């Protein structure tokens, strides 16, 4: 029943999108491209949250992890003049930030919220202090057309004519959904996040699994940052993550801790944002831009409020696991 | 197992230490670096201090332009020195370093320092303060503060005029930061200038929705530019700090950049500040900060400076690589408009 509702909604959205496309292909493609462009870091950020919270660790440091990823990626690429080195550095810095969260909260059993806040503060401090103006990278990550897929009307130009990280975000959401719900790793991860002592009794090494998951999830946050500084733009600005890490947390809840729903939620938010700027730019309605720009946030709030009663966080989120407790 | 607070405490302390470093100073006294600092309380020495907004004096932007304006004053009996602000919380402390040493004139850079500047001026009525890009509200200002302001609308008008003459699609775009008077003026000038040059042209205009990061959200700017370009715009004016720079970078990456797609920078000659925009950056709507700072400091030195607001000059930055690509008659028309704006015969309503 539930699945049918979701499938129905998806089909409805797709039909509406194509109706829009046939009415005005130019505007439709540009708006959906804009939506996806804005959604990519949100998707990656939400996936970090999905992995963390499904394993029982709240990660409110996604914002900081992203910012460090953007910083490390950009300045590594600027120093070596190689974008490949930049992407690798961005991902590795994400792992380092993930490892910090993992070891303090899982091994050290610190309050997870505090550890996340620390990540955000340290990230802002470090990236502002070591920021150097005037550095450039040889070029941003290039866009490319995926063979065949990029020929599909609407979906092709929107999803399959982008840079590598955008494509990766799309793929990782699908892969993560499969991993989480169809594999042994996924079952264990969910068990550890729902009821760690039961998982422990069943012989799962709770601490090791949480350490691994939270650390590796950092890669995605690092890549989200790299997307900001090397794919969406070719520049680093102080504080350029601009609250996207926090938005990703809202999307995680909106997406009911499920990768594919989070992907849909991120696209929804991106599209609301694209609609707001489209209304503002075209001047068709004469209302102050501040009100139009409220639209995505108000709608997100409404949807969140509607979804609030129906979604449930993993059972053990926020609680450190102490064996034999 | 007990919690290990030190795991968190160490990096947290590190962050605080980093953030608390205040500012670095540098000086370039006129008679060489080895000389002892002069006594600023003496009447024979004119001491000028500059406090940057968060950023360095070689940022190729506001801070650097203002510092160059200060350095232009160097000569006999002038000492110049700067303090780089690392954190907005340090504005007052950095200003105090200069007032404690009895500096004669202090230049502060950027809109964000306006409040700290007026507060310091009220505490030190004998020191002349020059607030670059800080509009002085007569009700709140002090008599010893002069705001160096720029008619952004004029700069926007010139940029719009050029875009209006050059556009092939008759669609122009402008990506702005937060909606505040300077960005509103840029947009207003841009719209009017493009209409004056080409009545058929339309301008798509977007302001950044959020407050806090409205001027550093380059990915958002890039996304907006991408959308405008896909809808047929062939000129993108990025007027909003990092947000606008993101738009310039996106236009530069679009196919046709430099032949059918162009972009316009803002505030300073962005050819120097945003190298990734070179493929499309035809010019920048420029505030002549260096000249304005020097003019005001000379007035402060000879005592003719007045409080309130002083209007600096605006114009278009050099065309650089695009000099040969712009038709000669377009250049003449634009130069004419810039001159009319400067002498006041053309006013932006």
TrEMBL record, chain B:
Residues 50-309 form the ABC transporter substrate-binding protein PnrA-like domain. GO terms for cellular component: plasma membrane. Keywords: Cell membrane, Lipoprotein, Membrane, Signal. It is a lipid-anchor. CDD domains: PBP1_PrnA-like. It is found in: Cell membrane. It holds the Pfam family Bmp. Residues 1-19 form the signal peptide. Coiled coil: none annotated. Belongs to the BMP lipoprotein family. This is ABC transporter substrate-binding protein PnrA-like domain-containing protein.
